[in-house]
Amino acid sequence: MELTDKYQKVDYGKLIYLERVKQRLTQNELSHGICSVPYLSKLENQRISDPNPETVSLLLEKLTVDYRSQVSRVQEVLEDMEHWYSCITSKNDSQMESYYQKLKSLPLHYYPDLTIWFQLIAIRYFIRKHDTLQAEMSLQKLSAKENKLDRYQTFYYLYFSGLIDCLKQHYKDGLLNLHEAEEFAKEQGIHDSELLYHLALTYSHISHSSLAIYYSQIAKRYFDQTMNIHRGVDCQVILGINFLRINRYDSAEKVFKDILRISQSINDTQLVGKTYHNLGFLYAEKGELEAALRYYYKALEIKKEYSKGYYSTVLRVIHAHQQRGETGQAMAWVDEVLENDDHEPDTTIQFKLKKLELAGEGDDYYQYINDIALPYFLKVNDKKSINRYCQKAALYYEENFHYKKANGFYKLILNQGGEIS
């Protein structure tokens, strides 16, 4: 995002328009005794490239806007906004929060473009914080000014609209907005590698591996050129996961080992743990369960105990032991987790499902799916889990001639936009 070179010039028309609307003045009331209504209308709609300075000065005076005192701060604020956006995309959460608090306290309403940019970047800020409600509220505030956005602002409006859809797991809608932003950027000569990264990430979320690989490779080239190591690694993670999905095991292994080397060199222990987990999953997919367990246990040594990521790896450890016929070891892990009552509902449900599965997937297993697991997954909109357990329950009841129950689960899959396999 480049703002300092684009927004130093004051857009008097936009300033006058926003202040007039804020003060609830009509064009006739504001222009009276200063200029004609048509002239004011052209000025507000950016149809006068070189407005009369005296007319502008009189209009601002009538609006009681002391613009001159703000001009000296414009450069500094623009730079702060660029840094704020950079902190958001680089996941520097402490600095991101500092810039938000600083910029929020400034009287930005004196400069219309700064107000718009603050509102735009605030959308991305709330997306980073996974605060869907605030992100949508910020977008709604901007929607009233959508026809006043310039081309650069319009691009980010489209882009961030797509990210909100993806945050809500509405990936089809998200892709429509992201691709609209992509086409608009091409037409207007605008570039932001973050958009390419998010296209790759979204296609990865819906398991469209070919396009996830395509966009992550393009994005990685740009991030490498700008020495953005962290985002480059994010792209590699998408590449590795999607090479794995299409059984390109050698390519996936090469990518994951490259990520491991980089993450160790920059002392990113969290990424090291995630990469050991991914290598474990890779070897499990290849059927090399002993090697898979070695990597999973390495991941557990590094990951923060009792964190979501930790439990994700524990589930993989359990599954690997289960595949090796080591039911006792698998059950011991389940019992150890369930002994601790202090975890999220999602964790409890996943491990109770696994315990019932290891015990033989009897009637109580499917009763638990119906009564506890599915209502929770529906509540949190976990479409993958809904689809997975509905499929299992439907097949179980179908095989046991309970066709009405089976049909209910199939309908639920379709209602959630899933496919029956």
Automatic annotation (TrEMBL):
What Pfam families does its record include? HTH_3, TPR_12
User: What InterPro entries would the database entry show?
Assistant: Cro/C1-type_HTH (IPR001387), Lambda_DNA-bd_dom_sf (IPR010982), TPR-like_helical_dom_sf (IPR011990), TPR_rpt (IPR019734)
- Record-annotated HTH cro/C1-type domain positions: 16-70
UniProt cross-references to SUPFAM superfamilies, sorted A to Z = lambda repressor-like DNA-binding domains (SSF47413), TPR-like (SSF48452)
Q: Which keywords accompany this UniProt record?
A: TPR repeat
Q: Where are the TPR repeats?
A: 273-306
What superkingdom does the record give? Answer: Bacteria
Could you identify this protein by its name?
A: Transcriptional regulator
Q: Which organism is it from?
A: Thalassobacillus devorans
